[in-house]
Design goal:
Blueprint lengths: L1 H10 L6 E2 L4 H10 L6 E2 L3 H7 L5 E4 L5 H13 L5 E4 L5 H12 L4 E8 L1 H7 L2 E4 L3 H14 L2 E2 L2 E2 L9 H31 L3 H11 L7 H11 L9 H4 L9 H12 L4 H13 L2 H7 L14 H34 L5 H7 L10 H11 L10 H24 L4 H14 L5 H12 L3 E2 L6 E4 L7 E3 L1
Parallel strand pairs: 1-2, 3-4, 4-5
Antiparallel strand pairs: 5-6, 7-8, 9-10, 10-11
Helix pairs in contact: 1-6, 8-12, 8-13, 8-15, 9-10, 12-13, 12-15, 13-19, 15-18, 15-19, 16-17
Amino acid sequence: MGANLARNLASREGNTVAILNRSPQRTEALVAEHPEAGFVPAVDYAGFAAALRRPRTAIVMVQAGAATDATIDALVEVFEPGDIIVDGGNAYFPDTIRRERAVRATGINFVGAGISGGEEGALRGPSIMPGGSDEAWRTLGPILRSIAAVAEGEPCVTHVGHDGAGHFVKMVHNGIEYADMQLIAEAYDLIRRGTGRSPAEIADVFAEWNRGELESYLIEITAEVLRQTDAATGVPLVDVILDQAGAKGTGAWTVQTALALGVPVSGIAEATFARSLSSRPEQRAAAASLPGPEATPLAADEAAFIEDVRQALYASKIVAYSQGFDEIRAGAAEHGWSIDLGAIAKIWRAGCIIRAQFLNRIAEAYAGEPGLPLLMTAPYFAEALARGQEAWRRVVVRATESGIPAPAFASSLAYYDGLRAERLPAALIQGQRDFFGAHSYRRVDRPGAFHTQWSGDRSETAL
Ligand code: 6PG
């Protein structure tokens, strides 16, 4: 990804790019493979620093963790106050906050920038989420704008906020990516097991969906994956891929952070746990003999069922994005970042993995009401949920009756119903807490905290 980002940078007018790799052979090979880039090779940090114009800007693309710290330390040695070090990896945002503070103390700027789009995006234009200081952004802004993807004439980069804000937002982007992927996978599974259609036939369904409100990169590539045949066996490739999903950790970070912030990102959590569940072969083998419905009942009206699944997918997707934006809002409040949620939706419209038409609707929702407490309550999304909720319920019922796991569909629906509920059984939980731990409760009819003498005469005391 680093090489592609360097090639992207070098291809833009006015940019000259110096490159430094741990292995000098890799640098030589890159220079030889891409003479058009006009790369300036460096063999050590001093040479790299000497090759750059002031204020120097270095973009670090190494593994998150110790390798990033080592590279930053080495750059700090050779850089001067006013220079900029950008970490373009998937760093954990608390690390970015720590690094920014440490590097800033030397007078050098440190910018944690989330970069999304994979190898291809890095070369052709990624979506970029930089944090760091305003001073760094003044120099860096034009450079990043020159390489970012463009959506409706606007570059997909914005100064997200200070210190770790960029990596925080990239983390949540990945959490949403997990939810989006899981929801699509559940939709595929439901259609396959509910109608018996082949992967290639379901590819046609996704291709069709990609022409409507679900239009997105992930739906588009889903159709391509489902259409692929395995050259060795002639069967659909999806049937010979081991069904154990990997994860590098950003989904788990999103969920851990949400737990710490008290933000319910249940769809993202279910998506993350679904990957964990898939990757427990011993447990799956042990549980395989547990009873369930005999055979999946075929959908009586296949076309209607597929349309229900489409609507359930769209409704669950709205919930997942709403939860993700809620986490960004809460994270910004906690860390004192001023994050423009509409601007985030805009920079995700192109270049990144979750790019979709849908993000225009999110940008519009925040433009209409910048202080929107919850995305899914914005008029456009509230109407879409109202339209889709009956189909959504039918799909969750069908999945449950058929024994087809649809954790993200079901938990998104439960979240929707939980928020809608006039009264929640949380009142009972408060009673239980007061019973065993004298944790007290508040009443609907009077201010203050109360405790009932559960093991005494059951009278109530105002605290
Ligand atoms: C991106 C991707 C990218 C990568 C993740 C996925 O925005 O370009 O999100 O960051 O694909 O690392 O990680 P998992 O391996 O956890 O799915």
